[in-house]
Design a protein that fits this description.
InterPro entries: TPR-like_helical_dom_sf, TPR_rpt. This is Tetratricopeptide repeat protein. With 487 residues, the protein is an all-alpha fold. Among the domains are: 102 residues, no CATH class; 80 residues. The chain contains 26 helices and no strands. The protein is elongated and about 105 Å long.
Length: 487
């Protein structure tokens, strides 16, 4: 295969200037003479001849031939070009070097590839503002060239960057812009692949908004597209999405099966970034199955791979996953330590979504350690950030926690304020068990505020829910009923 690539380069060593002869001779050596790597060679070792050839061609300032190396297919089964495949393997710095070397060197069409690749690189590193700037540069150039394919790819990249920053509305607008462009094109494998990818992205947005039916619809579209087009990368991501959805809707057994299929594909095609993400999700599944020791093992594997890849966003996610597992095991000091480490990385990345999750985990761990003052501080920070992100679910969680905390601190007016704010959202979205708990806390708060009518109202509504969905709360309700009737 390397020899055929050398033939494609059409290098005639007899008609080259002496100043560059050594560079082209090196290219010939790496592509035609160097021994094949051993069977157990890493992916990076397997493509070393291409990277060395690219380096020598760039030294000779032969940008046209360097671009041919960039777009060669190291794994024909995956049908992914070298520059993109490096990212799938997790060799981000090598990938970034290729793009920066070729940018502004050959022609605008090559620049669109480099800008898109740099945007994807920054997105993978959690540097979402830089990713947004790179994808915007790609979009502007693609529009100038009237490159429709480049435009929808750029819009998709912009959507990913907005999503990373927690700007879900802008992300959805960008994905829809990409979808509009695709729908106006004649169907072909590239456009169908694009539609499947965007379906997966829209599934993520619906998932964030807790619209799990819509998320599942989009994820199924993504899966069908991946399977129909025989695109394993799309298929594994769709399976991962469907697994996350099943975890959230309370079907961890179904989630486990989906993630195991996704894991098998990630291992088969050596997609280490996706493998790391799936290990993390499997940890969350075992957490939902109330198997914290197993969850801990999966999160530890995710952390080790994330550290090997050097991806801060994945490292932060794994650390927080370990924090959750330790919390479930009642190892609160270890949970606190891991949430703090995850928080530090999320702060550096300015990853608001990860930051929110880390602060919440830290609040719960410190609450369990009777560090109530700092726990309240972190939950207040969660509320501020969730409000900024217009994340009603996490704002409601913060209100519910703060309401209960201030109730225990006997600050009843503040407790009432937070609990009422939580109830407003929970009436439409929350589980009946959680709603029953909030009604009880509201009844208790109003009892201490001597608001008898409201106390009785919350007791009545909450007890009805508790009798059907949270019977462990019934004794608490009965006791409060008896006390309220005495006054």
């Amino acid at each position: 295969m390397n020899q055929s690539l050398f033939a494609q380069l059409e290098i005639d060593l007899t008609h080259l200037p002496l100043t560059h002869l050594s560079q082209y001779t090196a290219v010939q050596y790496f592509l035609t003479c160097q021994d094949d790597p051993p069977p157990n060679a890493t992916p990076l070792e397997q493509v070393k001849p291409y990277l060395e050839s690219f380096y020598h061609l760039s030294q000779a300032q032969d940008w046209r031939r360097a671009a041919i190396i960039l777009t060669t297919l190291p794994n024909p089964q995956l049908n992914e070009e070298l520059h993109y495949q490096l990212g799938l393997w997790g060799y981000w710095e090598e990938q970034k070097h290729l793009y920066n070397t070729l940018l502004h060197r050959l022609n605008p069409a090559c620049d669109t590839v480099c800008w898109n690749g740099l945007g994807n690189y920054y997105d993978a590193q959690g540097q979402y503002q830089q990713a947004q700037e790179a994808h915007q540069a790609h979009l502007t150039l693609a529009q100038t060239l009237q490159d429709i394919q480049g435009q929808w790819i750029a819009y998709t990249g912009l959507g990913n960057a907005y999503r990373g920053q927690g700007d879900w509305n802008s992300a959805e607008q960008a994905y829809q812009a990409a979808l509009t462009l695709l729908n106006n094109q004649d169907p072909n494998p590239k456009t169908q692949s694009g539609k499947a990818i965007i379906s997966g992205s829209l599934a993520r947005i619906a998932y964030h908004r807790q619209d799990y039916n819509r998320a599942q619809h989009y994820a199924q579209d993504c899966l069908r597209g991946g399977e129909t087009l025989n695109q394993p990368l799309i298929t594994m991501k769709a399976l991962h999405l469907l697994g996350d959805i099943q975890t959230q809707i309370g079907n961890p057994t179904a989630a486990l099966s989906l993630h195991q299929k996704s894991l098998a594909l990630a291992e088969q095609y050596n997609n280490r970034e996706h493998l790391c993400d799936t290990l993390h999700s499997l940890g969350l599944v075992y957490e939902a199955l109330d198997q914290p020791e197993t969850a801990l093992d999966w999160q530890q594997k995710s952390l080790e791979l994330a550290q090997e890849l050097g991806e801060p966003a994945l490292i932060s996610a794994a650390l927080q996953g370990l924090g959750r597992a330790y919390y479930q095991l009642n190892c609160f000091e270890q949970a606190q330590s891991h949430f703090k480490q995850g928080l530090e990385i999320a702060t550096t990345l300015q990853d608001q979504r990860s930051l929110l999750q880390a602060m919440r985990g830290l609040a719960y761990a410190e609450d369990a350690l009777d560090q109530l003052e700092t726990a309240l501080f972190w939950e207040e920070q969660c509320l501020t950030l969730a409000t900024l992100l217009e994340d009603e679910e996490n704002a409601a969680i913060a209100h519910a926690y703060l309401g209960y905390a201030y109730l225990n601190l006997e600050n009843y007016p503040l407790a009432l304020k937070h609990l009422e704010a939580a109830l407003k959202w929970q009436l439409n979205y929350e589980s009946p068990q959680q709603l029953a708990m909030t009604y009880f806390n509201l009844a208790t708060t109003c009892y201490h505020l001597k608001e008898k009518k409201r106390t009785q109202g919350f007791l009545k509504q909450g007890l009805r829910l508790a009798q059907r969905h949270a019977r462990h709360l019934i004794p608490l309700y009965r006791q409060l009923q008896q006390e309220s009737q005495k006054t």
